[in-house]
Amino acid sequence: MKTESVRVSSDCSVVVDIIDGKRDGFLLVHGLASNARLWDGVADELGKLGYRVAIVDLRGHGRSDKPETGYDFATISADLAHVLEQLNRTDGFSKPVVVGQSWGASVAESFGAEHPELTRGIVAVDGGMTALAERFPEWSECKLILAPPNMTGIPWEHFESVVRSNHPDWPESGIRGVLANMERLADGTFRPWLSRDHHFEILWHLWQYNPFETCARLKVPILFVPAGGDATRDQEKQNGLERLLGQVQNAKAVWFSPADHDIHAQYPLRLSILLHSEVLTGIFS
């Protein structure tokens, strides 16, 4: 795996990890307050199958720059366009399937609607299937309930212990991915790479985002991969999927159930096999 820094605007460069391969590949996009490392298990499996794979730390996240502006969907989509244009020039990376998880699924949908010439299809992993404003009609309620926890002063060792105990069935790649959401500080504590202000700014744009309007504009195939296991949330996702599958020209859904929200971290092999099969004989073939 090699790492490149891509200048996407005058005030921001984003970091991209690349696995070379002979097959046209995948661009993997993380969720809100997450980072590229959550995709390592999937990237490794896809690499073994011969695919080119790129994993990006979006602006404000992980190792990428953290400018004061640019956290709306249009700017993030433009960032991904710059990434793919550069990778096409330097690595022959042409028209990958763009796979996003959670907020990253909405980013992938938005990107696919705005830049269909740069991708052969979209995968939305447990995201981009429901409208947040339908669950939280008032922004104040959404902001209060989905606010990130204050973890100031918590020892790193305690954080790591909690992550491991909460995910006993996850592979080590997934555990390392969660830990990489945080910057380990010299005093033995940590803080999120994504600032609290930028977290709320992204959440604000996500609250306003309408997947039904965006996906109706898609001209490329889309695969939805919801995680099941919570009856109330499962019904909400199912209702959203029925609307989406009824209005999107080329779409399908494959459930992972039971599964955690971070399907890609929990089941990297299963998800990679699904992506591989959809490229060979499925929706992206």
Summarize the structure.
With 285 residues, the chain is α/β, with parallel strands linked by helices. The protein has twelve helices and ten strands. The protein has helices spanning 40-48, 73-91, 103-114, 132-135, 139-145, 156-166, 172-179, 196-208, 211-215, 231-247, 263-266, 268-280; strands spanning 2-9, 12-19, 23-29, 51-57, 97-101, 121-125, 182-184, 190-192, 222-225, 251-253.
In words, what does this structure look like?
With 285 residues, the protein is of the alpha/beta class. It is built from 12 helices and 10 strands. The strands form 2 sheets. An 8-stranded mixed β-sheet has the order 1-2-4-3-5-6-9-10, sandwiched between helices. A two-stranded antiparallel ribbon has the order 7-8. Helix 1 (40-48) crosses helix 12 and helix 2 (73-91) crosses helix 3 (103-114). The mean pLDDT is 97.
Number of domains: 1
**CATH C-level name:** Alpha Beta
Please mark out the parts with pLDDT under 50 across 5 or more consecutive residues, or reply none: none
Summarize the biggest pleated sheet. 8 strands, mixed
H-E order: EEEHEHEHEHHHHEEHHEHEHH
Q: In one word, what is the shape?
A: globular
Helix content: 40-55%
CATH architecture: 3-Layer(aba) Sandwich
**Spatial extent as radius of gyration:** 18 Å
Q: End-to-end distance, in Å?
A: 26 Å
Class computed from helices, strands and strand pairing: alpha/beta
**Largest beta sheet: strand ordering:** 1-2-4-3-5-6-9-10
Fold blueprint:
Blueprint: E1 2-9, E2 12-19, E3 23-29, H1 40-48, E4 51-57, H2 73-91, E5 97-101, H3 103-114, E6 121-125, H4 132-135, H5 139-145, H6 156-166, H7 172-179, E7 182-184, E8 190-192, H8 196-208, H9 211-215, E9 222-225, H10 231-247, E10 251-253, H11 263-266, H12 268-280
